[in-house]
Amino acid sequence: MASGHAGRHRQLRSGPDQVFVSSFFLLASTVVTAGLSFLFWVVVARYYSPEQVGLATSLISATTLLAFLSLAGLNSTLIRFPAPEPSRDAQITQSMLLVAVLACAAAGVYLLGLPLYGQKLLFIREDPAWIAAFVLFCACAAVNLLMKSVFIAARTPQFNVLSDGLLQGAAKLALPAALTGLGTAGILGSAGGGFVVAVVSMLLLMRAKLGFRLDFLGRGTRLREQLRFSVASHVSSVVNLAPVMALPLIVLHYLGAAQAGYYFIAFQIASLLNAVSAAVGEAIFAEVSADPSRFGEMMRRSAKIIAVVQVPAVTAVALGGGLLLKVFGGSYADSARDLLCVLALSALAVALNTWACFALKLLRRMKRLILSNLVLAAVSVGLAVLWTPRGLLWVGLAWGAGNLAAGCLASLSLLGSRPSPAAAAPAAPSGPTGHTGPVVPAPAGDGDWLARRLAEDDPTLQLGPWDLGPLRDVYHGAAAPRPREPWKPPTWAAHHYDERPKRRRR
């Protein structure tokens, strides 16, 4: 049965140009989710009052933010450092459990602090059932974000379109009419129900298509070994999110609620352009993680795909942004057209920054990655504070300047981080593994990659951590492998029961 699942998993990964296919489905997932979310709010607006909608948006936004903060970088770790096949289920299961626990804790802290920052949302604490529901929705939203990375790592992002896009959107559209009697809690329940449906459908798809089974006790998950990578990746993501959260507040403070509304709509349209580079970046991240030797080839191909898709899209939005804004009303076309043009052109700077940041993450240059995101946040927010009083257009310029500065810094960091050409690999000495002959250089610190390569040469090999230690020295340029320590029996094995005096039967 296990071999059948593995074979089916390999078949799903095949394809003539997996980067393009994965990018297409990742972008399609974003578009489908955005479109069905728009329809969801249209339906909600027909069944609920504006006051109820306003309160519900605050709770749903809090749910999404708490879910994102609870990922702890594990979404990147599952893609960049997948555990070997016997431990992959345990790695995914334990990651889901950890993320769910963090989300529940974050939801509890948020509810406890509502008297400080959400007086009008205290009604959610009056009913224990809704407290439990809110915590559950936060956990499901976080697990949903994590499980999307599982399909990306398996290079089957089409299942994200089905589960996270279509099924979740359909559930959200079906629930508002049935929950109108609950008021604001009904809107929250509709959105939360979508998260629950997405998680359940993803679990079923992972079981049917990837052969996934829950494993809470398995070892070899590599989660502890890659803790620093997970934390650094999470920090960089949070810093990257900071200007997105801060700029609307700056517009609201300096220009008022109406201008903040115009900025919100224009930024949402521009976000679809930014999703192109993000989708290609995620696809490249999965491809290079599966085969690090293709780093240069994949980065060049991704740059071409981004240029071919992004430049025409940016041109269309920059020239026809007024027509898009008229869908929301004439005032939006008059007040936000110039801003949308600037945000559309800024999508090119966003693409440069996104492309370079994914490259730094693949090379594990995490300090440089965090530094580039700090530059993005500092330049964008700092210039926005200085320029926003001049008008809405200047907020877009601040956003573009921040991404351009961060993208240039990250690209310059790559110049000194390109992988050196592979030198002739020395022959590995014969040892406990029985493997001899030339060995292909492996990335530093990736012992599981070494195990997989040796297993491909000789499927009969049974490798353990003690076998990989001497070979790592050869890969890292050591003159000779480390001598193996002689095995010492544990203390409990020193006593042999055969040496006990036997009693004679009377």
Kindly describe this structure.
The chain has 506 residues and is mainly α. It has three domains: 1-225, no CATH class; 229-417, no CATH class; 441-477. It contains 17 helices and two strands. It has helices at residues 2-13, 18-47, 50-69, 74-80, 85-112, 114-117, 128-153, 158-174, 184-210, 227-255, 257-290, 295-326, 330-362, 366-387, 392-415, 447-457, 465-475; strands spanning 427-428, 437-438. Strands 1-2 form a two-stranded antiparallel sheet. A hairpin with an 8-residue loop joins strand 1 (427-428) and strand 2. Helix 2 (18-47) runs parallel beside helix 8 (158-174), helix 7 packs parallel to helix 9 (184-210) and helix 14 packs antiparallel against helix 15 (392-415). The longest helix is centred in the middle third of the chain and has 34 residues, at 257-290. The chain is globular, with a radius of gyration of 26 Å. It starts with a helix and ends in a 31-residue tail after the last helix. The relative contact order is 0.09.
